[in-house]
Design goal:
81 residues, mainly alpha, 3 helices, elongated
């Protein structure tokens, strides 16, 4: 489920930007939860999102997603003659 379905994109983007100037947010669920509350997140949203967001801030490289499968029907394949 996309995070946008759980919490406003503005809230988690602000956390990500703040983590650049406030390293105490990185990996710290309580700090992230406190900031999300300041940004107006509801308690149930904080419970679901804060642990994941705190952990995601620890990543130094983007998460690699698998390539989507392409349609390999005959009409979509190149003709090799």
């Amino acid at each position: 489920m996309p995070i946008e379905n759980l919490i406003s994109p503005d809230s988690y983007k602000r956390i990500c930007w703040l983590s650049q100037s406030e390293p105490s947010l990185i990996g710290n669920r309580e700090e992230v939860a406190e900031r999300l509350a300041e940004f107006g997140a509801r308690f149930w949203q904080i419970d679901h999102v804060a642990p994941l967001l705190a952990q995601a801030l620890c990543e130094s490289e983007p998460i690699e997603l698998p390539e989507p499968e392409t349609d390999k029907t005959p009409e979509n394949q190149a003709i090799s003659e």
